[in-house]
Amino acid sequence: MSRSKKIKIIISIICISFIQGLQFCVSPILGPIQKHFSDVSISMVQMLVTVPTFLSIIVAIGSGWIVVKISKKKLLLFASAVAGITGFMPFLADSFNLLFVSRIIYGVALGLAMALNTAVVAEFFEGDERVTVMGVQAASVGAGMVVVTTLGGILGAIHFQNAYFVGVIGFIALVVIAACLPETGTAKITKTEKITLNKKVYFTAFVGVLEMIFLITFSTNIAMHISGSLAGSTTVSGNLTGLFAGAQIVMGLILGAITKVTKKYTLPAAMLSFSVGAVLLIMFPSNYVMLMVGAAFCGFSQGMFVPTSMVEVANAVNPASTAMASAVLTCGLCFGQLISPTVLNTASKVILGETTTTNVFILAAIGMAISAVIVIFNKMKNKE
After folding, report:
1. What is the residue extent of each domain of the chain?
2. What is the pTM of this model?
3. pLDDT per position as a tens digit, 203-248
4. Beta strands of 174-228 (E only): which ranges?
5. Distance between CA atoms of 74 and 8, rounded to whole angstroms?
6. Which helix (H) or strand (E) holds 326?
7. CATH 3.50.50.60 corresponds to the domain 3-382
């Protein structure tokens, strides 16, 4: 494959990642949304970030079979269109219900983008090059989050509804993917190469559930967690979310070097990185510098975990099963995000007596550390 073709494919992968980044377009404006729709519960407002994962789970699993009938490129073009359209839907009426529904429907685009992005990488790249490009993919998800959240925070500072304009990224991705991604046709199934999964895929997906239950607390709580003179600032919350994504970019770009050091323990290392970040958020809710450091550690976690887990499931199955394996992992990641606000807000009240962002971060830090230990023992047991 020529260098120019590889570059075009990587550009397409970056655009797919930007579609994924749109999940967090409302993250920096959750505070103003909560004030504007004062009769809506905090959990419902937080779910504007996580509710797209509801449909993502269904769509991701379906995509594992649909790629046999419809090409990845056509599915990704459809995802781009859905992302763009749902981004502008909330302009139709000043209604929380409409905003919520638009976020649910966006889940179709998110599910296709998350499941097929890995499949595209696995189809065109192999070996160490696959790990490197998967790192670029993770970095581009981070870049998408930086653009989406920073721009959303700036626009939302004028009026929170202005942040919806970020949805234009979906239409831009549509044009770029149409021009740059090669059309390879549908996935092929033969008598010797059928769609089959194994226990490593399922365990990694389970770990993905745990990772996202705790990791997503950063995006759903940070806007309401900052206190003191920083409280209520969409610019500050946007910058923190942007730094979270920026750290993900850095980690994605150096992932190849990191995995040579952490080896088989990259996943638990990623999880422990979040625990460190969450502790800093707990200790310094009004200190801008320490909040930035905490955001960076949380971003490092996602930048390490997602691409590494995707590579692990892709390498664990045959080529025909790659889309399904990544779809199962995507479902794990999405399910963890979906249940996170309900699970941790409820646990915060039951265990710590009150639902606060600090209590949620405490549970997330402890839960992630315990999860990391589970993964370490599993890898030692299986002698991976």
Report:
1. 3-382
2. 0.75
3. 999 999 999 999 999 988 887 888 777 776 767 877 887 788 788 8
4. none
5. 17
6. helix 322-352
7. no
